[in-house]
## 1
Amino acid sequence: MQIPQTPVTLFLVGAVFTTYASTLDIALMEFALTGRNPVADQSAKAAWDKGEELLRTNYGSLLNVTGERFLPNPWEACYDTGSLALNWAARYYYRQTTGDPVLAMIGSDCPLPAKSLANFATEWNIPIMTTNSGDSGFYDKQRYPTLTRLSPYRAEDVSVVLYKILSNFGYNTVGILCDGTEGSDRSGMFPSAALAMSVCRSVSNTLRDIYNISASWYYIQGKDRQNTIDSLEEIKAVARVVIVIAQGNRIRPIMLAASDMQMTNGEYVYFAFEPFRHPVPSVGNITWYSKNDGRDAEARLAFRSLFKISTSSSYEDKPEYRNFTPALKQLIKEKYGDPYYNGFDLEVSPFTMAYYYALSIYGQTLNEMATSGSGENLHDGAAVSRLMWNRTYTILGQEIFINATGDRQSDWILSQPDINGNFQPVMEYSARRRWLQPSRDPLDNSIRQIVWPNNRSSPPLNEPLCGYRGTKCTSDGRDKGGNTFWDVSADVLQGTASRQQGSPIQHALNSTVNLIQQFSSVLNQYRDILHI
């Protein structure tokens, strides 16, 4: 445990204030609890430094902010830091603060300490701004009235986006692969197995309980190839849609295992999450390419069955953001010695940026309350938090939307590999509008078309015509109800047409259904005449 002996002092700046005789004391508790992830710990400290610099530059001397940073030992995992966080917070709250300062907490990434600290924040009525994404219980603002989540994505968002995508293609049965692999490098999309499993449970429960989608999930250790194969074999018996929640560098081995099992033949479709482009591409990003095993051609072909779901990163092209990140990388390198930014060509993690956004938003809110003349109580953490909610903030050119329940919401992109193996957007989801729409080519504004596995013109079926295990058909090719393949195909297409109400696609599908029904009728007459 590392607790600074000397408090860090910040000064918040702003307009000229003439109604206050003295500064207001603000005490911050900053928690960098990421679970055996020194990269994230060092990055968090640098983000706080830049946030404090922003406050000194923008808001003047009205608010005098002091506080402490709480950092775990590098060997402490996420699940080890829950009681530590409570001990640190209680000691600071009851023993180390002097006078009557306005209090707030920033952090943490790990689920258990985040929940523990949120309970303390509720009891003490102080704001807490966390970067944790995995606990859907944080949605309950009667229980957590002072909690604001600034994670670049939430487990609930993952479920909503998935539901929109699945329902768009007529899917209501899925298998979920949850990879809990933990290597020596803990800087991936899910900094700990605990966070990955938390997201898995949330997605599975939400799809099943709220959206009525049959979701079976399987815990795998992706480095164990046989374990992956066994889980895929089980999924074959219950689903044709596979959702993969894993570190980006685990997707390729999983897809190769699926290819070896003939599960990339066009009958299956896979959705994997890459919430953001990771600072270390070899750790977190999804790619078919690897120069080590000689299977790139197979992997590239297997990836034609894979879709990637990620948050929109259009803000990275904004001049403000592009000017800011090199300075942050410089600070990380020179002050905290993080080796991952030595090359200066790597992306900054959105989780790191969330700490900076937290200080920016909190400073703006306090400034508004202190200068409004309305007499609002800065000690009322619930009131401070509510003022931060249901608003859009523009920070470094990026729009940060905090919804009415205190959760940041991001837009999402559905991508698939093009003929060169490069992922291209094919659909976009707007969190505020809650709609899914096709992506457009930036060159000619044309709608990008989805290319289904094996160049099929339509999505793989939710369930094979003869069932997942092939038990719904008789030996003559009819299903158990006496229908032929063509009868069932007509039913499936008719259902698809009904979901395209009012679109040009509906007319084309209905015409196809009529042709299939006519062909099936003729075929059945000949079968009866020939007794086949």
Note: Confidence is low (pLDDT under 50) at residues 1-21, 183-188, 527-532.
## 2
Amino acid sequence: MCMKREFMFLTIIIPGPSAPKKSIDVYLRPLIDELKMLWEDGVMTYDVSLKQNFLMKAAVMWTINDFPAYGMLSGWMTMGKLACPVCMERSKAFSLAYSRKVSWFDCHRRFLPEDHEYRTCKKKFTKGKGETSTTPRRLTGEEVWERVRHLPSVEESKEDHSQGYGVEHHWTKRSIFWELPYWKTLLLPHNIDVMHTERNVFLNILYTVMDTKGKTKDTFKSRKDLEEYCMRGGLEVQQTENGNFLKPKAQYALTKQQRLSVCEWVSDLKLPDGYVSNLARCVDRSEAKLSGMKSHDCHREITSSLLMESKLHIMEENIPIILCKLEQIFPPSFFDSMEHLPIHLAYEARVRGPVQYRWMYPFERFIRTLKQKVTNKAHVEGSIAKAYLLEEMSTFASYYYPSDVPSRRTRVPRNDGEGSSENPPLSIFNHPGRSYGKCITSTLNDKEMEAGHLYILLNCPEVVPYINIYSDLLRELDLEINDEDLDKQISMRFPTWLKSYVLDSRNQIDDVLLKSLAWGPLKNVKKWRNYIINGYKFVTKSQNEGMSTTDYGVCVRCGENDSVDNDYYGMLIDIVELEYTGSPTKKVVLFQCDWRYPSYDPFILAQQAEQVHFSSYPEGQQSWLAVIKTKARNAIQFLGKNKPDDAYQDDDVQEMPTMVANDDLEEILVGIADEGEELPWNQMDLKDLEEDEEEIEYSTSSEEEEELIEEDGNSDSNME
């Protein structure tokens, strides 16, 4: 509830074009005073459910912030060699000789078990260097307090740095949060934001593999740093016969044709509604690159709404291995602070729980909404405040509206199929679901009607005893009948037998439901093109044409076994509602699907459907489609007890080859497809060469006054 928009409060707007940095404590003073009062004295509050007053006390569990704001709130500068607020001065980050950037290359072997083979390897990481140091221990709140208690607060001193800054510590102040009596007892008072971390790690890999000009981490300076720190002769800058320098093409970088194939695949890729933004807009086919991808396009397993403690322990073991394997592939300049932070995410998830209660997604959306309220750019802060107060008043007033008055507070959630039903559920009938769009009254042909009626009978619990009776009769008539022939007989003759059996007065069957089922459904049916059920939005294949999403993939599970072999996959062709005669009303929604199987069995119950989407392969296996299952929105699925896959990659990494095909040779040279670059010797002063490289958000440098680049180009940290 606390993450919903109506419970977010805009308490402070900090004016100005840039972030306040450590001076944010000045603006937080009123908030801290109220938090201290809430903890010590409490506030009399009215409980509307019990209709009585009570003394309410409150405490801050943790702060939710991006990485620059982490430094503002905690007082630990999140830039430079000591940027990591967990490793602190025990960080092994260093400045690269040529790129002149801070690198976390070869800083993760210390997180491996002491007997791990990577610790003794002196060729695949920093050349001639092993790793003997242990994993840095996390400091407790009491230990951190002992370190900062002597530091001045922002209100006490305006000095930028205290003695030992940048070498022994990175403290810029004593945070105002330490005034809270309970702050030192919190296990993790600040969060490393998973949202921005996952995005930056993904983009670093994407831009480097796609060799995106201006954003790749694989540059001339990177290769010179590689020569300085690593033993990868195949990737070192080479001098040609004419005195120029050649940057060999890396094995991890795609060729132009491969990049075009990826771009075409991403451009044509369609996913279910609400699971990803429109990826086609991120594709630039003319330059064979991807750009403009948002944070929600880059999810990882740790963002699951259900986390198993055992799996989080395995993640803590796997993440250092994955980072070490990446260190064997990419150059040292690839590893900025964002590539280091994932080492701590699994522990934070294990202590705090799912990231949905700790990341910046809802607040980034809230800030975006506030920015859209600006109507007077000459007075931005006042424009936001006025619009926000108006929205708060209308939201408060909506609690007194009659239940039939629509408002944002009572709006049906996205893909919520639990719509109101005029008829109470009965067996498999009247199952809650929500149709929308145009409704068409139609009829089914005899073959479709028989198939639909048969499927309903076979899946109705009240009919199961009569299926058993009919099966016993068939076995008595033919002692040698096998299961396959028995199923054929049931499919062909069971509905007719059931009707005659139930309506025969000699059998004394008075069940109204059975008699209604025996008569069969009405001839007229209702059809829709859109239906929401089980948290999924389903759209027929014909209706889905031309859309940027794909919502017609259907999966139905057969049997109790969760094996993939028991799942059937198809495409939704039609949505049909059948109604049976008699009282009470009995309606059932069927999905008519194309299963691509030889037998004719097109229908399933709508409540049985799960959603999948089908994806083609970028190269090869063009006649095959990959099936990807999706999770229903706002649903928590049990993960089971299966151990997750190990951090697999072939440890016997081969030397990066310098040989390329003839048709790729031109792409290595400067000015052609940006695959490589060749410079004359007299222009190759690598240490002083200025490169205009666009840094990915929140990357760090050795210059502590370097401005941080925000995702939207502005500092969102100004709004609290």
Note: Residues 282 and 293 are 6 Å apart (CA to CA).
